[in-house]
Amino acid sequence: MIDLNHKSTLFKGIALLLFVMGGFFLFQLWTLLFLFIQGLSLDSTIQNDLTDRLEYRHLLLLQVISHVFVLILPSWLWCKVFGIKDISIYNIPIKWNTLSICLLILLASFPLVGLSAKLNQLIPLPDVFRIAEDKVAEMMEKILNTNGLIDQMILFITIAVIPAIGEEWMFRGIIQNIFKNINNQVWFFVGISAIIFSAFHFQFEGFIPRFILGVVLGLIYHYTKNLVYPMILHFVFNGSQILILFVTGKDWMEEQNTISPIGWLDWTTGVFSVFIIVGLFEQLKKFKTTE
């Protein structure tokens, strides 16, 4: 027998799913209208055609609109409907000491994320997933083809700022709390929300590293009780990749997509980073209990 609290949680979860589906439907309508304005036929709604026939600025615009309709709007509406004015995103000041520890945790996770990315590349994918990965890679290559400072600023906002707000609001602020109400074991609600977060991107060659990032961000949100911290870290993670791309060019992106052997240095730094991350989280928990 499910108790009333779980029934309420289930209802909230179903409502969130419906809001997301509604947002996705609105995004599809907006995309069709946009294609009509651009003078493109309906067959251009196929992802491959969109990549070939739209300019990269148009693809960036679609990326922004998709986050607004599928993540930000449903999250805002969900909070409005259920009268949730505070999901630890408002009225909580940033503590610089806490932020510094969180940034160190993110930095320490880079070797582990890198190792998991190489391990993920070794997992064979079905053809349908492989084709989807190729389409996403093709679209991302065109999106990242920026010219000039203004284009780079637009790209930075699209890839670093907006996803940090929308994805953390949805996956940590709402979904993680929904599963926490079902089972308050940390491994459960952080792990489930991280799995959903990673699967949402539909890029299975990066599923494991994105899952690890989701776990790190979920734990930081859990221990700080402030959604702004994972938002900042998400922004830093995505933003650092964009900055590296600006400096090194497309060669870095191609290198990331190339399967490379896992050496002893990868294993050493990856395992060592786990101990550092655990130690830093212990420090974060102690620091928060003394505030």
Structural class: mainly alpha
Number of domains: 1
The number of strands is 0
What's the overall geometry?
globular
Span between N and C termini?
40 Å
Low-confidence stretches: none
**Total helical elements:** 11
Mean pLDDT: 83
Provide the gyration radius in Å: 20 Å
How much helical structure, as a percent, in the residues?
A: over 70%
Write structural notes for this entry:
By secondary structure, the protein is mainly alpha-helical. It has one domain. Helices cover 79% and strands 0% of the residues. The chain is built from eleven helices and no strands. Helix 8 packs parallel to helix 11. The longest helix is centred in the N-terminal third of the chain and has 34 residues. It is globular. The model has no long low-confidence stretch (mean pLDDT 83).
Short description:
This protein is an all-alpha fold. It is 79% helix and 0% strand.
